[in-house]
Design goal:
Keywords: Membrane, Transmembrane, Transmembrane helix. This is LapA family protein. The protein is mainly alpha-helical. The protein has one domain. Strands 1-2 form a two-stranded antiparallel ribbon. The protein has 4 helices and 2 strands, in the order ααββαα. The two termini are 22 Å apart. A hairpin with a 4-residue loop joins β1 and β2.
Length: 154
Amino acid sequence: MRMVVMIIFLVLFGLLAILNRHFLTYPHTLNLGFVEYKNLPVGLMLLAAMLIPMLVFYFWASVTKLRAEADTARLLRDMESLRTSLDSQEGSRFQQLQAHLDRQFTEMQSREAGRALPSSASEVASLAAKLDAMKRDLDLQFDQIDDYLKRKLG
């Protein structure tokens, strides 16, 4: 977009210069206070002076865009590291859950021989309730992470 605007301005300046070539090349006297120049094409100097701020603006806008892209790249790198960290934490939580469930099932099987079935059923129900609570907690955390990523990445 900046390039299009710059090309439009250059075309307009070129058209202005072509239409006013006699005025632009007409010799004038330029007095700078401490020195005086005679037979100087002041119109061409003014035209060149208009091009300088335009080029400065173009390069300033380019630097601003590069900084914004660098910030975006840094944010994306941070988000990627956060995602990998959360993935590893999720894996360790699932491993802990699996180990806990294995221990509970082993204890239940060892106690099952000496106990009646109703107490085992209540333990299974309590384990199922704990498992459901852990699943809801993990789902909530995943939803929060998903919402955070959507807000940050747009």
